Amino acid sequence: MSENKDPHVAQSGTSVEGVKFVYDFTEGNKDLKDLLGGKGANLAEMTNLGLPVPPGFTITTEACKVYLESGEEPAELRDEVSAHLEALEKKMGKKLGQADNPLLVSVRSGAKFSMPGMMDTVLNIGLSDKSVQGLAKQAGDDRFAWDSYRRLIQMFGKTVLGVDGELFEEALEAAKAAKKVTDDTELEAADLKKLVTKFKKIVKAEAGREFPQDPREQMDLAIRAVFDSWNGERAKLYRRQERIPHDLGTAVNVCSMVFGNLGPDSGTGVAFTRDPASGQQGVYGDYLQNAQGEDVVAGIRNTVPLAELEKIDKKSYDQLMQIMETLENHYKDLCDIEFTIERGQLWMLQTRVGKRTAGAAFRIATQLVDQGLIDEAEALTRVNGAQLAQLMFPRFDESAKVEQIGRGIAASPGAAVGKAVFDSYTAVKWSRSGEKVILIRRETNPDDLDGMIAAEGILTSRGGKTSHAAVVARGMGKTCVCGAEELEVDTKRRRMTVPGGHVVEEGDVISIDGSSGKVYLGEVPVVPSPVVEYFEGRMHPGADDADELVEAVHRMMSFADRKRRLRVRANADNAEDALRARRFGAQGIGLCRTEHMFLGDRRELVERLILADTEEEREESLKALLPLQKQDFVELFEAMDGLPVTIRLLDPPLHEFLPDITELSVRVALAEARQEPHENDLRLLQAVHRLHEQNPMLGLRGVRLGLVIPGLFTMQVRAIAEAAAERRNAKGDPRAEIMIPLVGTVQELEIVREEADKVIAEVEAAAGVSLKLAIGTMIELPRAALTAGQIAEAAEFFSFGTNDLTQTVWGFSRDDVEASFFTAYLEKGIFGVSPFETIDKDGVGSLVKLAAKAGRETRPDLKLGVCGEHGGDPESVHFFHEVGLDYVSCSPFRIPVARLEAGRAAVTSQGSDHR
């Protein structure tokens, strides 16, 4: 762009032939978000709809990618921008920054996915010492012109030149103090003119250069600053939090300015076509008279509700209501709208599909189905498992004795309790030390993002439902209360004063209710969510007292269950968990870990087994364990009657059933010193030393135990078979599946299977029943995945143990790495998310895909499932659907999430044109 080599002046160089880098608003549409970003695509769409959009053009994400890769804008970009700027000037009848009749433009970021406040925007580009006079004459308002100029220098200085924004804020506060006023709007033209001079001095001192007077230089530098902001720390942090890819780049929108700060007949606002907190239809949003752009979302001045606009400017209000209806019907979803009124003329500055709370998402999806705007399949794409999980969190107990100290705007629901902190640094520091915190600010800004992520909830004394705090909190699913005006927040003294004079100091515990906006002193007890009560069967949809949210969740779950192909099972080790899982919709048990049955009061029997010196002692221990194991399975089969129950034979290393080596050594040493009897402890210590392994998770465990400890696996198989036979003879329908863990070669499975088949045949003959017990294996080692075709010859099913498979593929010890270096890996972008949380599709996922394909080639009717924690992870569920697994299995509380995501996976895989 500019040829000047000043580091603050944009350069150009890299040539990309045949690529169009700039689109007029009349050329795009809402489907070009990859190229034009969300903001640019929707500005184009509104232009196409004939809505009042200020003319402008969009610089594409492709231009940004070239810049980020090479450090220079594409060589063609300057000429394209010049051509579009010339066309814009012709359309508007004025030139950028000319002295007598200046055209002013905004330069705004706009990525494919909404990243509110995370990237940069500069308004009033084109103002200078000369053109400010022309703007004053053009508007007939000196104050407006100088207010606009001071805003440009302030925004440009901070955003483009890297000046500390606090310096401008301090100068502004000083000007108000000198005038003895509290509001920016009370400063007069002469005051603002002095402020402009002060601001320019700050720029010169801090940036080492004068504020640029050339309007084109201003625009070029602002465009570059927006490109750079894609890789700003707060933008990268937000993308990691929201799992937005880092290689998309941002578009840049250059839009002719319209002014909401021209007096009482002007203003700016944000509107929602439905309440983003509850989903209810109505008039929702905020309006601020005599204000510009960022004033509303920044929360620095308290707004009035959008409904008040009807009294202030009925013509604009009626037109806005009509436009909102048009946009919602067109996008078929909740729309978030930014608008400006310039002396009675309404202008649309942005629309996007609005962020919403989890409850609002479910309500809105069902409302739109009822209105005929979308079908059930599309409704499933409008909600997700993470939102459903939020709705299952507990709520505050309204019947508890509480001390309410304030109330604000219910911006993002939830029940958050924590220690009060007054800056992001402290929030992060305390959170990393294990403390739960509530971040309290007068208003948040994008620099507070890391503190918002660390906090349990956010409380502000300014702003409304459209403020930065509210929008970002809703997007993250964080509890948030905004605009609690009666609370006086003093961030410098780290305290908050509440009505009546009570002071909340940093470290004091408070509770905030994002559903009601109430703020309480101390910790408020919680009660179960009505959504959990619904899944537990304690709240029934359609009943007179049924929660409206429960109705919406019930309908969406019904949609998902009708659409999904994947079945959902539970990881459950006892009858109580199995019954709960069944209430939550489990279609069987995908993993019963038998080692959990060996703990508690049975540990002594296991110790005797481990310490056995003779075959007789070992058989005696196994004989004592058999009836206990059998009863475990009887109860489990009764709870899951008619549904499959996959039982994993003993998996962990035997040392896990023995006392800790340090604790035991101390016991033995003390007993010897006191000359007390300690023969048993001594034998245990010797056994611990004998069984000690440098890396026990890769040692004597799983199938290896069954092969080297005679009778261990056959005892468990007999217990399963006898329990199934007893249940069958009691007219039940047990459907047991026996799973052999940690198999690495087919020979291991063949040996164990041969012994198991003999035991099962003996039990069948003795009980006079046919059990049809399936025998399969866990695929949790890379070799098992790579030789799955061979292993399938001896297995009737595979269950992917993705926890261990992830450990062995990556070479990670889960118990160690998550605490030691995962935080650094996430911060550096090596991981977008922990591979133990969401399956690593490229590595671990490739082995799952390969094993599934090879196994089915050998045995076409091979049943395939997954029982690692990934079975309840929303993103992973979609992957398992894609690779053709039959079921996922997860903990009982994650079953509803897995059911919902399985339905969503089925819908999206059909290739429908869903958002």
From TrEMBL:
<protein>
    <recommendedName>
        <fullName>Pyruvate, phosphate dikinase</fullName>
        <ecNumber>2.7.9.1</ecNumber>
    </recommendedName>
</protein>
<keyword id="KW-0067">ATP-binding</keyword>
<feature type="domain" description="PEP-utilising enzyme mobile">
    <location>
        <begin position="435"/>
        <end position="517"/>
    </location>
</feature>
<dbReference type="InterPro" id="IPR013815">
    <property type="entry name" value="ATP_grasp_subdomain_1"/>
</dbReference>
<dbReference type="Pfam" id="PF00391">
    <property type="entry name" value="PEP-utilizers"/>
</dbReference>
<comment type="similarity">
    <text>Belongs to the PEP-utilizing enzyme family.</text>
</comment>
<feature type="domain" description="Pyruvate phosphate dikinase AMP/ATP-binding">
    <location>
        <begin position="34"/>
        <end position="72"/>
    </location>
</feature>
<keyword id="KW-0670">Pyruvate</keyword>
<dbReference type="Pfam" id="PF01326">
    <property type="entry name" value="PPDK_N"/>
</dbReference>
<keyword id="KW-0460">Magnesium</keyword>
<keyword id="KW-0418">Kinase</keyword>
<keyword id="KW-0808">Transferase</keyword>
<feature type="domain" description="PEP-utilising enzyme C-terminal">
    <location>
        <begin position="552"/>
        <end position="903"/>
    </location>
</feature>
<feature type="domain" description="Pyruvate phosphate dikinase AMP/ATP-binding">
    <location>
        <begin position="74"/>
        <end position="302"/>
    </location>
</feature>
<dbReference type="InterPro" id="IPR008279">
    <property type="entry name" value="PEP-util_enz_mobile_dom"/>
</dbReference>
<dbReference type="InterPro" id="IPR040442">
    <property type="entry name" value="Pyrv_kinase-like_dom_sf"/>
</dbReference>
<dbReference type="InterPro" id="IPR018274">
    <property type="entry name" value="PEP_util_AS"/>
</dbReference>
<keyword id="KW-0547">Nucleotide-binding</keyword>
<dbReference type="InterPro" id="IPR000121">
    <property type="entry name" value="PEP_util_C"/>
</dbReference>
<keyword id="KW-0479">Metal-binding</keyword>
<dbReference type="InterPro" id="IPR036637">
    <property type="entry name" value="Phosphohistidine_dom_sf"/>
</dbReference>
<dbReference type="InterPro" id="IPR010121">
    <property type="entry name" value="Pyruvate_phosphate_dikinase"/>
</dbReference>
<dbReference type="InterPro" id="IPR002192">
    <property type="entry name" value="PPDK_AMP/ATP-bd"/>
</dbReference>
<dbReference type="InterPro" id="IPR015813">
    <property type="entry name" value="Pyrv/PenolPyrv_kinase-like_dom"/>
</dbReference>
<feature type="domain" description="Pyruvate phosphate dikinase AMP/ATP-binding">
    <location>
        <begin position="308"/>
        <end position="359"/>
    </location>
</feature>
<dbReference type="Pfam" id="PF02896">
    <property type="entry name" value="PEP-utilizers_C"/>
</dbReference>
